[in-house]
## 1
Amino acid sequence: MEVPLYETRHHASNYPPQHQHHLQQQAAESATATLFSLLSSRGVSQLKDKWTEYNQPKRLKRLVSLFVSSTAKHVAVAAGNRITILSKEDDYQNPCASFTSSSLGTFSLGSWSEDEEVLGVADNSDTLYFIKFSGEVVAEISKKHLKVSSPIVSLFSDINLDTRESYLFTVVTSDGSLQQIEISHGQSGSIFPNYISNRTSRICNSIFCFDRHSELSLLVAVHKYSGIQINVASLLLLTAGLTLEETPLSTWYTIMLAMWMAFGYLVLLLSWANLSPDPYLKVNGSSHLSLFRKNSSTELEQLFSLQFEGLYLKPKDYRGLLTYAKVLISPQASFIATLDLTGCLHIFKLDKQGFTLSRFVLGERDDSPMSDNLLNGVNKSCVGFMDFTWWCDHILAIVNRSGVVMLIDILNGSKAQEEDRTYFLPVLERALKFEGHVFVLASQSLKERDDPSHFVSTEELHQTEWIIEDRLNQLHLSRLLWQLVSFTKKSVPEMYAILISKRKYQAALDFADKHGLDKDKVLKSQWLNSSHGVNEIKSFLSNIKDKVFVLSECVDRIGLTEDAMKALLAYGLRITDHHRFSVADDDNSSKVWNIRLARLQILQFRDRLETYLGINMGR
């Protein structure tokens, strides 16, 4: 297999971190909230929200996220509660807009509209924001107004076939419900949200992560197959004849104490039963991967489901670094890969004829050099990952726990490692409509590396928890320094030209040897970017095969020194010596005459140089 060729480009960074003081102030204020503040109307509302959230396990939050539009026209970087929007027009070098949430949360989910003009994002409180590429917020929808009771696990855009004047987004919640949101233009040109309730029945229980392939109308979910669940918060409210959604704010003042007392009795009961007081009492089923398809009536049809071993719900005694659960369909829908919380990557082969799934072991192809070592089904090469995306239909781009980016061909197990020694954050996303176009965040900008006050050691970065359960704190905020980096697939000629343009001449010469390319382009660039001295004539100009180029340099180039000028003219006369006018030549082609005219010019220049030196230098 040929090693994938790609160009690495460094783009904008958030250095210096001008907004971090504001974030740290927010974190400090949040940490010092008093008991009395919770007794206010707003505080009681927050407590109610906490109870509403209590019916779910603790949610994992990403400190940093990337949202890339389908053709990479725009890229949004979310760090903490701030989103920075970058544009392809200036090579993502300068922010074209930014948005900062009033709450101290993070953005883990997001998607650009089909026309790449509006970004939809969800924060960890399940509040939706719809932001234009200019930074204008066109809609904000809270979880209460969205009328969902389960956490949002996916947000993606749809094509509106009826009109081009609105944006369609679909929200997927962990209970398997789908809800469509339409953001439409008003008559005055303003934009307002219009909700279209298009819920399906629960397609599967306890969804952990979700993806779709828009061209094939395929959807895939990693979920729990079955489970017995008792919602503690709902149980307590039901004893009072109420529900979470129907409970008025004033009622919470009167029943709050009773609920806490009831919860205390429940904890004692659980202790007596030697059970853990989780918000859910559950008998968990195994992790499943299910494949769905939208039919003509927009209903979801389950095509296939299989069971596999993967940890997607954090155990209480788990102490390792967490990764963010993720599932992705490959660009041509030949494979599906999913990353669990422990950093283990599971790969499945998709039969697009029968729409069935089967386990796929890295390097499973018969002619793979790794196949003999993988027959036992144990694939040690698929552990220790922090994030991934598809580079193309059979190559994965991954970030491992050491902060290294690698490209892995799953057919034969071969790897290509990025040589940049920068520590890369566990955030990888691709432009969906282009294969081989991936974005990642580096930990430190080039400027930042030279500033000791913002330097973070590699060891500290390795120990940083990029996926957190608790609130943001000042330690988290101190890590929110990033630089956008892109990897773009290139052909052999394109890669050769890039190496030359970056003046990586030795790498270009090695590349030319490997791929059988003409080295003239390297030598020409070396010559043109040199001092044009005597040594450069011997090293570069004399080795160039393109004699038309060489002769034009001898005629038109002016040496910086007397020796350089004489050497340049002498070399021009030497390579045209066999085309002297005194020598008979049957070839009267235009090429020969051009060489003779060039020789004549060089002779004239030599005479002028000698005359000049004789008059001015007394020679």
## 2
Amino acid sequence: MNTLIFSVSAFCLFGSIWGSFGNVVLHRLKHGGSLVFDRSHCPQCNTTLGVLDLFPILSWIFLRGKCRYCQNSISIQYPITELLFAIIWGLYGYVFFPYISIAQTLLHLFIISSLIIISLYDIKYYEIPDEVSLPSIFILTLIALWQQNTDAFIAATLIYSFFYLQIFIPTAIYAWKQKSWKEVFIAIKSFFIFPLWIALSCFISEKKLEKWSIFQEEENEEIPQWIGGGDLRIAFIMGLFLGTKEALIALFLSYIIGSFIGVFVLAIYKKKNQMIPFGPFLSLGTIISLFAGQTLWTLYWETFVNF
């Protein structure tokens, strides 16, 4: 028991530290700056922060949510992000440690952290950063190739195809109503081009890729779509990371959780056009499935199939 408490506490501690770095990533991906070489500073007065200002969670509490130097308020996002990382890393330590290898633990924590950052970025800016999603896809693809894990590629293809249908079907309906099949052709082309774009973007800058005519598309804002390119990237991560069974569980959980929270948010704001990012639900479903996917799969099978 003492070993378990120590292990979980250590995971929580390192999770909060990584969450502090996650705050840096969230800010600098949007506003610029090096993730490695630039010192942490107050976003209001730009004063470089000292060691006592950088303790995860505790510094914000002791400073009462204000900068030590300019007394401007520090966003509550910072301690919440650090606490979120601490809780999820702690849960991971409780569930998995020391039952899997160090290499697998590091991979899991890297993907979990990437998904948390992707979710928070999507909530704040309504977009999913390529700088986080693409390296995750690249690493998972290399590992799947090295392990000859065909199940990972099957899962990624299935989840990606399912998501893309939600783009293609509204496009086809719009084209049928407008008697114009140009959008359908673009959608079919994009189904095959998008994975190629993801693969090449790991080696070639996005700006250069956008100049190539094969990757240029015309977006029609009249076509209703609630699945975006960022969600398709998470689909690849979900499939490559979990495999078929757990990915299906993650997909199911994402839609169930997203439906409940979506209805709740719409009831509060009472706006039909209120934007609700779907990335956080996909990430949450993926993390839950990592923790309990096999258990949920067995429970479903025994309850509804072998009843």
## 3
Amino acid sequence: MKSKDKENLKNHSVAELRVELLQAREKMFRLQFKHKVTPVKNPLEMRVLRRHAARLQTWIREKEAATAGPQGSVR
């Protein structure tokens, strides 16, 4: 993923990131299914999609944590 794309996605809202995450997971599922039936031309694409989904999840969690504010430990 290019750094421009990363910065562009990082500036999206949580809802937009969730939509992007669902699309990435759907594409990853279809590619895995296709790979089970017949070998895909570029199997590294699965790794790229998996990492993209993980990156999106990280950004979603960061934004949710930032909006929740600091949480002190309750004892």
